[in-house]
Amino acid sequence: MTEVRISDEIAVGEGRPLLVLAGPCVVEERAFMVRIARTLREITDRHGAKLVFKASFDKANRSSGATARGPGMDDGLAILASVKEDVGVPVVTDIHESWQAKPSAEVVDVLQIPAFLSRQTDLLSAAGATGLPVNVKKGQFLSPPEMGNAVKKLEAAGCDRILLTERGTTFGYNDLVVDFRGLPQLRELGYPVVFDATHSVQQPGGLGSASGGQREYVPHLARAAAAVGIDGLFVEVHEDPDSAPSDGPNMITPEQFDRLLADVVTVRNALAGSATVPRA
To answer: Who's near 35: CB < 8 A, 6+ residues apart?
Structure first.
Protein backbone atom coordinates (compact mmCIF):
# COMPACT_ATOMS: atom_id res chain seq x y z
CA MET A 1 0.00 0.00 0.00
CA THR A 2 1.25 3.47 -0.89
CA GLU A 3 2.04 5.66 2.12
CA VAL A 4 0.48 9.10 1.84
CA ARG A 5 2.21 12.06 3.44
CA ILE A 6 -0.08 14.87 4.53
CA SER A 7 2.55 17.11 6.12
CA ASP A 8 6.03 16.87 7.57
CA GLU A 9 4.53 15.44 10.77
CA ILE A 10 1.70 13.31 9.36
CA ALA A 11 1.90 10.25 7.14
CA VAL A 12 -0.86 7.70 6.55
CA GLY A 13 -0.22 4.03 5.90
CA GLU A 14 1.11 0.77 7.28
CA GLY A 15 2.24 1.11 10.89
CA ARG A 16 1.41 4.81 11.07
CA PRO A 17 -0.75 6.46 13.75
CA LEU A 18 -4.46 6.76 13.03
CA LEU A 19 -5.32 9.70 10.81
CA VAL A 20 -8.40 11.59 12.01
CA LEU A 21 -10.29 14.00 9.77
CA ALA A 22 -12.63 15.79 12.14
CA GLY A 23 -14.54 19.03 12.53
CA PRO A 24 -17.95 20.61 11.89
CA CYS A 25 -19.79 19.94 8.65
CA VAL A 26 -19.52 23.52 7.38
CA VAL A 27 -17.35 26.49 8.21
CA GLU A 28 -18.98 28.69 10.85
CA GLU A 29 -17.77 31.87 12.55
CA ARG A 30 -14.04 32.13 13.17
CA ALA A 31 -13.96 32.06 16.99
CA PHE A 32 -16.04 28.87 17.08
CA MET A 33 -13.89 27.17 14.45
CA VAL A 34 -10.63 27.96 16.25
CA ARG A 35 -12.09 26.86 19.58
CA ILE A 36 -13.36 23.49 18.38
CA ALA A 37 -10.17 22.86 16.39
CA ARG A 38 -8.15 23.32 19.59
CA THR A 39 -10.44 20.92 21.42
CA LEU A 40 -10.15 18.30 18.70
CA ARG A 41 -6.39 18.61 18.62
CA GLU A 42 -6.17 18.10 22.39
CA ILE A 43 -8.31 14.96 22.10
CA THR A 44 -6.44 13.45 19.17
CA ASP A 45 -3.05 14.22 20.70
CA ARG A 46 -4.11 12.54 23.94
CA HIS A 47 -5.02 9.35 22.07
CA GLY A 48 -1.93 9.32 19.87
CA ALA A 49 -3.82 10.08 16.64
CA LYS A 50 -3.07 12.71 14.01
CA LEU A 51 -5.63 15.41 13.26
CA VAL A 52 -6.53 17.05 9.98
CA PHE A 53 -9.25 19.59 10.75
CA LYS A 54 -12.28 19.32 8.47
CA ALA A 55 -14.92 21.85 7.48
CA SER A 56 -16.53 22.72 4.16
CA PHE A 57 -16.81 26.27 2.86
CA ASP A 58 -19.82 25.21 0.80
CA LYS A 59 -22.26 22.30 0.88
CA ALA A 60 -23.53 22.39 -2.68
CA ASN A 61 -25.40 19.08 -2.50
CA ARG A 62 -27.85 19.78 0.31
CA SER A 63 -31.35 18.28 0.17
CA SER A 64 -33.08 21.66 -0.26
CA GLY A 65 -31.94 24.79 -2.00
CA ALA A 66 -33.39 26.80 0.90
CA THR A 67 -31.06 25.38 3.56
CA ALA A 68 -27.71 26.81 4.71
CA ARG A 69 -24.70 25.98 2.57
CA GLY A 70 -21.84 27.76 4.32
CA PRO A 71 -19.98 31.07 3.93
CA GLY A 72 -18.65 30.46 0.42
CA MET A 73 -15.13 29.90 -0.83
CA ASP A 74 -13.45 33.25 -0.08
CA ASP A 75 -14.70 33.69 3.48
CA GLY A 76 -14.53 29.97 4.23
CA LEU A 77 -10.93 29.62 3.12
CA ALA A 78 -9.96 32.71 5.13
CA ILE A 79 -11.40 31.13 8.28
CA LEU A 80 -9.67 27.81 7.57
CA ALA A 81 -6.41 29.69 7.13
CA SER A 82 -6.95 31.20 10.59
CA VAL A 83 -7.46 27.73 12.05
CA LYS A 84 -4.21 26.54 10.49
CA GLU A 85 -2.29 29.50 11.85
CA ASP A 86 -3.82 29.65 15.32
CA VAL A 87 -4.09 25.91 16.08
CA GLY A 88 -1.23 24.56 13.99
CA VAL A 89 -3.12 21.75 12.27
CA PRO A 90 -3.55 20.82 8.60
CA VAL A 91 -7.01 21.39 7.16
CA VAL A 92 -9.22 19.68 4.58
CA THR A 93 -12.26 20.99 2.74
CA ASP A 94 -14.65 19.82 0.03
CA ILE A 95 -14.56 21.19 -3.49
CA HIS A 96 -17.53 20.87 -5.83
CA GLU A 97 -16.33 22.58 -8.99
CA SER A 98 -13.08 22.08 -10.89
CA TRP A 99 -12.27 25.81 -10.76
CA GLN A 100 -12.26 25.66 -6.95
CA ALA A 101 -9.31 23.27 -6.83
CA LYS A 102 -6.46 25.71 -7.44
CA PRO A 103 -7.49 28.53 -5.06
CA SER A 104 -8.42 26.02 -2.37
CA ALA A 105 -5.05 24.31 -2.71
CA GLU A 106 -3.35 27.60 -1.83
CA VAL A 107 -4.86 27.36 1.67
CA VAL A 108 -5.76 23.79 2.60
CA ASP A 109 -3.56 20.72 2.96
CA VAL A 110 -5.97 18.10 1.61
CA LEU A 111 -8.73 18.42 -1.00
CA GLN A 112 -11.84 16.32 -0.54
CA ILE A 113 -14.15 15.07 -3.27
CA PRO A 114 -17.73 14.59 -2.05
CA ALA A 115 -19.28 11.17 -2.56
CA PHE A 116 -21.88 12.43 -5.03
CA LEU A 117 -19.05 13.78 -7.22
CA SER A 118 -16.64 10.83 -7.08
CA ARG A 119 -17.11 10.14 -10.80
CA GLN A 120 -16.69 13.74 -11.98
CA THR A 121 -13.65 13.51 -14.24
CA ASP A 122 -12.90 17.23 -14.53
CA LEU A 123 -13.15 17.70 -10.77
CA LEU A 124 -10.85 14.75 -10.02
CA SER A 125 -8.37 15.87 -12.65
CA ALA A 126 -8.26 19.43 -11.31
CA ALA A 127 -7.81 18.22 -7.73
CA GLY A 128 -5.10 15.78 -8.73
CA ALA A 129 -3.20 18.43 -10.68
CA THR A 130 -2.76 20.63 -7.58
CA GLY A 131 -0.18 18.28 -6.08
CA LEU A 132 -2.09 18.05 -2.79
CA PRO A 133 -3.34 14.82 -1.22
CA VAL A 134 -6.90 14.10 -2.36
CA ASN A 135 -9.50 12.30 -0.24
CA VAL A 136 -12.22 10.77 -2.41
CA LYS A 137 -15.40 9.64 -0.75
CA LYS A 138 -16.87 6.54 -2.34
CA GLY A 139 -20.11 7.35 -4.08
CA GLN A 140 -23.17 5.98 -2.30
CA PHE A 141 -24.07 4.48 -5.66
CA LEU A 142 -20.72 2.77 -6.34
CA SER A 143 -19.28 -0.61 -5.41
CA PRO A 144 -15.80 -0.45 -3.84
CA PRO A 145 -14.00 -1.85 -6.92
CA GLU A 146 -15.53 0.89 -9.07
CA MET A 147 -13.50 3.42 -7.09
CA GLY A 148 -10.54 2.14 -9.07
CA ASN A 149 -11.70 4.42 -11.87
CA ALA A 150 -11.47 7.46 -9.61
CA VAL A 151 -7.97 6.37 -8.60
CA LYS A 152 -6.92 6.09 -12.23
CA LYS A 153 -8.26 9.56 -13.01
CA LEU A 154 -6.27 11.06 -10.16
CA GLU A 155 -3.12 9.15 -11.10
CA ALA A 156 -3.49 10.35 -14.70
CA ALA A 157 -3.46 13.91 -13.34
CA GLY A 158 -0.18 13.22 -11.53
CA CYS A 159 -1.61 12.52 -8.07
CA ASP A 160 -0.20 9.64 -6.03
CA ARG A 161 -1.31 10.91 -2.61
CA ILE A 162 -4.82 9.47 -2.49
CA LEU A 163 -7.14 8.58 0.38
CA LEU A 164 -10.29 6.52 -0.19
CA THR A 165 -13.22 6.95 2.18
CA GLU A 166 -16.08 4.54 2.79
CA ARG A 167 -19.33 6.27 3.76
CA GLY A 168 -22.05 3.69 3.16
CA THR A 169 -24.21 2.62 0.25
CA THR A 170 -27.74 3.74 -0.51
CA PHE A 171 -30.57 1.54 -1.65
CA GLY A 172 -33.03 4.42 -1.51
CA TYR A 173 -35.66 4.88 1.18
CA ASN A 174 -33.66 7.53 3.08
CA ASP A 175 -31.05 5.19 4.47
CA LEU A 176 -27.44 4.04 4.09
CA VAL A 177 -25.92 0.63 4.77
CA VAL A 178 -22.25 -0.11 5.43
CA ASP A 179 -20.90 -3.34 3.96
CA PHE A 180 -17.64 -3.81 5.82
CA ARG A 181 -16.27 -6.02 3.04
CA GLY A 182 -15.78 -2.71 1.26
CA LEU A 183 -12.89 -1.66 3.49
CA PRO A 184 -10.46 -4.42 2.39
CA GLN A 185 -11.79 -4.09 -1.15
CA LEU A 186 -10.90 -0.41 -1.19
CA ARG A 187 -7.51 -1.22 0.32
CA GLU A 188 -6.81 -3.50 -2.62
CA LEU A 189 -6.71 -0.38 -4.80
CA GLY A 190 -3.38 0.43 -3.19
CA TYR A 191 -4.06 3.48 -1.04
CA PRO A 192 -4.97 4.21 2.61
CA VAL A 193 -8.59 3.72 3.58
CA VAL A 194 -10.67 6.05 5.76
CA PHE A 195 -14.00 5.23 7.39
CA ASP A 196 -16.59 8.01 7.61
CA ALA A 197 -18.35 7.19 10.87
CA THR A 198 -20.85 10.05 10.85
CA HIS A 199 -22.06 10.21 7.25
CA SER A 200 -22.54 6.44 7.36
CA VAL A 201 -25.44 6.95 9.77
CA GLN A 202 -26.99 9.69 7.63
CA GLN A 203 -30.57 9.31 6.42
CA PRO A 204 -30.49 11.20 3.10
CA GLY A 205 -33.52 13.42 2.71
CA GLY A 206 -34.97 11.77 5.80
CA LEU A 207 -36.38 15.03 7.15
CA GLY A 208 -37.94 16.03 3.85
CA SER A 209 -35.99 19.21 3.17
CA ALA A 210 -32.90 18.01 5.03
CA SER A 211 -31.12 14.78 5.87
CA GLY A 212 -31.71 12.97 9.12
CA GLY A 213 -29.33 10.72 10.97
CA GLN A 214 -28.82 8.21 13.77
CA ARG A 215 -25.79 9.43 15.67
CA GLU A 216 -26.30 6.81 18.38
CA TYR A 217 -24.85 4.23 15.98
CA VAL A 218 -21.65 6.16 15.22
CA PRO A 219 -19.55 4.44 17.94
CA HIS A 220 -20.72 0.98 16.88
CA LEU A 221 -19.79 1.47 13.24
CA ALA A 222 -16.48 3.12 14.11
CA ARG A 223 -15.43 0.23 16.36
CA ALA A 224 -16.43 -2.28 13.69
CA ALA A 225 -14.40 -0.44 11.06
CA ALA A 226 -11.36 -0.37 13.34
CA ALA A 227 -11.68 -4.12 13.80
CA VAL A 228 -11.76 -4.70 10.05
CA GLY A 229 -8.80 -2.38 9.48
CA ILE A 230 -8.61 1.32 8.64
CA ASP A 231 -5.89 3.91 8.22
CA GLY A 232 -8.08 6.90 9.01
CA LEU A 233 -11.33 7.91 10.65
CA PHE A 234 -13.61 10.71 9.47
CA VAL A 235 -15.92 12.20 12.10
CA GLU A 236 -17.99 15.38 12.05
CA VAL A 237 -17.98 17.00 15.48
CA HIS A 238 -19.90 20.00 16.82
CA GLU A 239 -20.35 21.54 20.27
CA ASP A 240 -24.13 21.63 19.76
CA PRO A 241 -25.05 19.27 16.90
CA ASP A 242 -28.78 19.89 17.16
CA SER A 243 -28.22 23.58 16.44
CA ALA A 244 -25.68 23.07 13.66
CA PRO A 245 -26.52 24.56 10.25
CA SER A 246 -25.80 21.30 8.41
CA ASP A 247 -25.77 17.56 9.19
CA GLY A 248 -26.67 18.04 12.84
CA PRO A 249 -28.40 14.63 13.23
CA ASN A 250 -25.17 12.86 12.22
CA MET A 251 -22.65 14.86 14.22
CA ILE A 252 -21.38 14.07 17.69
CA THR A 253 -20.10 16.27 20.53
CA PRO A 254 -16.43 16.58 21.51
CA GLU A 255 -17.13 14.48 24.61
CA GLN A 256 -18.63 11.71 22.50
CA PHE A 257 -15.73 12.01 20.08
CA ASP A 258 -13.26 11.58 22.95
CA ARG A 259 -14.88 8.32 24.03
CA LEU A 260 -15.24 7.09 20.45
CA LEU A 261 -11.60 7.76 19.62
CA ALA A 262 -10.45 5.97 22.77
CA ASP A 263 -12.38 2.88 21.68
CA VAL A 264 -11.17 3.00 18.08
CA VAL A 265 -7.52 3.38 19.07
CA THR A 266 -7.86 0.56 21.62
CA VAL A 267 -9.35 -1.80 19.03
CA ARG A 268 -6.79 -0.82 16.44
CA ASN A 269 -3.87 -1.28 18.81
CA ALA A 270 -5.18 -4.63 20.01
CA LEU A 271 -5.23 -5.92 16.43
CA ALA A 272 -1.99 -4.32 15.31
CA GLY A 273 -0.09 -7.61 15.49
CA SER A 274 -2.76 -9.73 13.83
CA ALA A 275 -1.83 -11.24 10.48
CA THR A 276 -5.48 -11.34 9.45
CA VAL A 277 -6.28 -7.65 9.97
CA PRO A 278 -4.50 -5.06 7.77
CA ARG A 279 -2.45 -2.75 9.93
CA ALA A 280 -3.13 0.91 9.36
So the answer is: none
Q: How far apart are CA 63 and CA 258, in angstroms?
A: 30
Check: CB of residue 7 under 8 Å from CB of residue 161: no
Distances (CA, A) of 240 to 33, 35, 199, 269: 13, 13, 17, 31
Query: Taking Cα atoms as reference points, which of 174, 184, 267 lies closest to residue 226?
Result: 267
Q: Per residue of the chain (280 residues), give pLDDT as tens.
A: 899 999 999 999 989 999 999 999 999 999 999 999 999 999 999 999 999 999 999 988 766 666 678 999 999 999 999 999 999 999 999 999 999 999 999 999 999 999 999 999 999 999 999 999 999 999 999 999 999 999 999 999 999 999 999 999 998 888 999 999 999 999 999 999 999 999 999 988 766 656 778 899 999 999 999 999 999 999 999 999 999 998 899 999 999 999 999 999 999 999 886 544 444 4
Nearest Cα residue to 187 out of 240, 229, 134:
229
> Is the pTM here over 0.85, yes or no?
yes
Closest CA to 235 of 207, 208, 263: 263
